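Sample 3 of the quickstart, ligand MRU:
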Amino acid sequence: MSGAPGFVRVFLMVGYNERRSQPPGNPMTTASTHHDSVRAVEWRDDALMLLDQRRLPGETALLRLENVPAVVAAIRNMSVRGAPAIGVTAAYAMVLAARAIPDCEPAGWLAGMEAARARLAAARPTAVNLEWALAAMMAVAHEHPRDQQALLAEARRIHEADIAGNRRMGELGSALIEPGRAVLTHCNTGALATGGYGTALGVIRAAAAAGKITEVLVDETRPWLQGARLTAWELHREGVPARLIVDSAAPLFMASGDVGWVIVGADRVAANGDVANKIGTYALAVAARYHGIGFMVVAPTSTVDLATATGADIPIEQRDGAEVFGDLDLPASVAVANPAFDVTPAALVDVLVTERGVLRMPDTAAIAALMSGPGVGGV
Ligand code: MRU
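Result:
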C-alpha cells in the first residue's frame, strides 16, 4: 500500500492512554461529551482523511488519500474497515475519481466514473454498504455530470445520514435493554466502523449513557482483533466499563446469567433476514439461543440487501492465512482457512434494529415492509 500514489501518512501520536478530560490533538478525535469521540473518515482540505485502524490502539495515525487506487488499497488492507465506514469512504473516493478524469464529454466522464466504481466495489466483497454508497454516488454522477461539488455534497449527505441513523438506532436499541446486566459484543461496530457513533456499539453507548449496563464483555475477535484493538479502545476513551475476553470464553459468560443481550452489527442482511457479520457471530447466536439470551443485530438499512435472497448468496471474503498464524513458525504444509465473515440464520436473530424501526424475529415479509418505508435523513 505504501507504494500507492496519493497515499501520504501525515500524523502520528500515541493514542491508547488518551482520556476524555484531555482531548487528543488529533483533529479526527473530538471531546466526547456526546459519547462519540472519534471519526474514522473525514473529508478535509480537498482530500480524504482516514484514521489508520491498523495502528490502533498504540498509535493514532492519519492517512491522507488523494486518488482511487490509494483508497482501494486502504479498504483492502483494513486501514479503514467496518461496513458503513467502507461505504462512506467509497463515497468520498468517487469525488477523488471525478477530479482525476481529464476534461471530456459527459459520456467519457461517466465511463471514467463507472471504472472507478467497479474498482472500488471490488475492494472487499461482503459489506454491501460499499455497493450501496457507490450506487448513490453514480446516481448523482448521472444527474450532474462532471459536477464535483454535487458529488461532494452527496458524499457528505451519506456520511451525515449514517451518523443520524446510528443515533436513532442507539435510542431504539437501548430502549430494549433492561437495566442491571452486562452485554456482550463482537468485532468493532463503533465510531471507527461507521460514519460516527456506531451501530451495535452505538446501542451500547446509548445504554451505557442511560446507566443501563453493568459492563461490556468485548470479544477479542480473532484473527484481526477488532474487539481487543478497537472496541476496547473506544469504550476505554469514554469510561464505559468493559472486559476483554477471548472469543471462546463467550458461552461461559453467558452461562453465568449476567449477560442480558448479545449485540452485534452486520455487513449484509439478506432479504430473508440472514445476517453476514464478522466470523464468530454465528457461534455467538447459537450460544445465546441455548442460554435464552437475546441476540440483537444493529444495522442501518444501507446494510440490507434485497437483491440477495438468503445468506447462502452472500459472498464471504477469504483473507490471507497469515492473519491467522501470525508469527507462528508453521510448517509450510499446514493449510489455513481464513473466512472473514459467517452467516447467522434469521431464525437466530431475536431483534433487528435499523434506523427505520425494530423488527422482532425478522423475516422476508417484515424486511420487505421495512425497506419500503422512509428512513432517517433520506437514508
Ligand atoms: O472485517 P471488518 O473489520 O470490516 O468487519 C467488520 C464487521 O464485521 C462489523 O461487525 C460490521 O461491519 C458492522 S460495523 C458497524
